[in-house]
Amino acid sequence: MDRIFHKLAGVLALFFTLLSAPLAAQQDAQVPSGSEPYVYEVDALNPGLAAQGEPLELDTPQALLESFFAAAEAGEWERAATALDMSNLPPQEQATQAEDLAAMMYEIANRSIAVNWASLPDRPDAVDTAASNKDPMAGAQRRHITLASLELTRRSVPVSIARLQEPGGEPVWMFSRQTVGNLPALYERFGPTDFEVSLPTPLRQQAFWTLAWWEVIAIPLVMLLAFLAAILTYKAVGMAKKRNDDDNMIGRILRAVQVPVTLFALAGSFAIMRNFLFTFSGPVEDLLGPLQLTLIVIAIGAIIVTVVEAMLDFATDRNAHKIEQPENEESRDFYTQASAVRRLVIVLVMLAGIGIVLVQSNITQTLGFSLLAGAGAIGLVIAFAARKVLGDIMASLQIAFAKTARIGDAVYYEDQWCYVEKIGFTHLRLRTWDDRRVMAPVAEFVGSSFENWTKQDPAIIKRVPIFLDHRADIDALREKFDEFVAGDDEIIKKDEAKIEVIEHNAQGQVARACVWAKDPKIGWTMHCRLREFLIRSAMEMDAASGQEPAPAFMPRAREVQVDIPLNRDRD
Questions:
Q1: Are residues 82 and 169 both part of a single domain?
Q2: Is there a smaller number of Cβ atoms within 10 Å at the N or the C end of the chain?
Q3: Is pLDDT of 175 > 90?
Q4: Same-domain pairing of 145 and 186
């Protein structure tokens, strides 16, 4: 027993040794070794600036931003300018431009950047001690950190800080010289507009969070004006729609684009006022920017899709009866392939819209989606949500390209004779013979059996059963049937027409007439006429038979007479 415990203790000791090895290695990796700081070496730091009061705390990235914001909010612009690396400027110009550059930097950092203070290092070497050991930068010293990327007209400009050291001095963190060099262009794009500058000073003061008083007033006002523009657009399109019926293409298009155009007016008017009149602060801008872009992309994509849908539906509805004719095989193929191309266009527009939103906005950085995306959570959620939709899309494309059912085809689905009227993403629209619409789910339609009566040859055989008495003279009825076949122009393959007894039971016999029609629509009316003719002929021959037991054609209830002798004698 003692030997077993010793072995078990040895195994546990080995296990904990192996477990502690990577943890120790990770801990060692998080704390860099070496005495030399990791810096950009420069000849001098802003030699054109004179010392201004108490120096800023620039030993860590977090201290840099905190002290810079404090000095700027106190109006100490010359002191705040010591946080800028102005190496691109001659020393004689540094003093003259220091205040303006510091004010520009504060406006950009305060209005257009959402600083993630939790992830901003508070160590001189900027080592991220919370990073996973799978991160290639885990445990590494840094001398450059990008705070954000702002989009100018044709390029993306990073706003970054760098760790610098002049000979004989201590390493300090400052806004990089590249960022300082881009400040005029960034300020022109993201700084306050002329309208904001003209506002009274009290309205430009801080209200709460990062919002100024003018932003507290402007945001609901801008939204109200945008909704007003959307309502006016909706009514204008509605008035134009009333002047055009659905029988013309313009009316169909106006009816289809009314909601997307309204959405575009909402997002567009909001974008115009936001870009030309106001420039909101960082967190608000990070929320409104992606939202505005998403709405505009959705509106434009919806307009494209609905216009294509309306034009194809108009052409299909206008030529519906022509497409359903058996001889219009090429038309059915064309409209079915056009419907498939339409769905591909819709998918491409959706993918392009998603790509534009992801590329043109920093939504993955500003809303915290990067953490979820890194863990694959967004991909899993989207894949799960889109699984059914993608399956329906592939099923609808399968129908279109395999041509198992084309627009205008006559199909027999779930005991109903229908024409395929539209093949959508999720449903097929089927029109029954009595003009009802059956919405068949694409997945169920593909996964179940159905009859396509116009796939190869639209000619169809119609079967007409008729119930007769056992004594009916089938040969006499067959003569009447032959007369009908010979005189009916809608019956084809007349030599194959026949009437046969296919069943009998205690009540009578079943005779079935079989005739051919050139398509299902003609076959329906023809087989109704044939049934009426056979019933009428049987009744006429039944009435002319006179008396029993002459041949009877129509079924009769059988009567049984039983004679029961009465025993009158009693014991």
A1: yes
A2: C
A3: yes
A4: yes
pLDDT for residue 246: 63
CA distance 399 to 409: 12
Are 465 and 448 in the same domain? no
Are residues 56 and 131 both part of a single domain? yes
pLDDT in tens, 308-342: 777 777 777 666 666 666 666 666 767 777 777 77
pLDDT band at 29 (very low <50, low <70, confident <90, very high): very low
Instruction: State the DSSP H helix or E strand holding residue 288, giving kind and residue range, or none if neither.
Output: helix 282-318
Domain membership flag for residue 518: yes
Mean residue pLDDT of the chain comes to: 76
Stretch 131-136: mean pLDDT, rounded? 63
Q: Which residues pair with 212 in a beta bridge?
A: 206
> Across the strands, what pairs with 514?
463, 498
**What is the rounded CA–CA span in Å between residue 250 and residue 307?**
10
Whether residue 301 sits in one domain with residue 224: yes
Task: Tell me the average pLDDT across 428-438.
Answer: 84
pTM of the entire structure?
Answer: 0.51
Please check the confidence at residue 495 and state whether its pLDDT lies above 70: yes
CA-wise closest residue to 511 among 492, 525, 493, 498: 498
Which segments of 190-267 are extended strands (E)?
206-208, 211-212
β-bridge mates for residue 161, sequence order:
145, 175
Q: Which two tokens stand for residue 338?
A: 């056009």
CA distance 252 to 248: 7
CB atoms within 10 A of CB 322: 11
Asked, for residue 554, whether it belongs to a domain, the answer is no
Is there a cis peptide before residue 549, judged by omega within 30 degrees of 0?
Answer: yes
Q: What is the dihedral of CA 157, 161, 162, 163, to 10 degrees?
A: 180
Please list, in sequence order, all residues whose beta carbon lies within 8 angstroms of the beta carbon of residue 407, skipping any fewer than 6 positions away: 316, 323, 332, 335, 336, 339, 420, 421, 422, 423
For residues 174 and 214, membership in a common domain is answered with: no
Same-domain check for residues 87 and 5: no
pLDDT tens by residue, 68-107: 999 988 888 888 988 999 988 888 888 889 889 998 898 8
Distance in angstroms (rounded) separating the CA atoms of residues 292 and 274: 10
| Cβ atoms of 94 and 180 closer than 8 Å | no
Helix 91-111 × helix 282-318 angle, to 10°: 60
Report CA dihedral (75, 81, 83, 85) to the nearest 10 degrees.
160
* Count: domains in the chain: 5
Domain that holds residue 476: 460-543
Q: How many CB atoms lie within 10 A of CB 87?
A: 21
Please report the pLDDT score of residue 381 as a whole number. Answer: 63
**Domain assignment of residue 269, yes or no:** yes
| Closest listed residue to residue 38, CA positions, set 123, 129, 110 | 123
Burial class (CB in 10 A: 0-12, 13-18, 19+), 485: buried
Can you tell me which residue has the tokens 């041509």? 403
Q: Do 379 and 447 have their domain in common? A: yes
SS3 content of the chain, % helix, strand, coil (to 5): 55, 15, 30
Tell me whether residue 406 is in a domain: yes
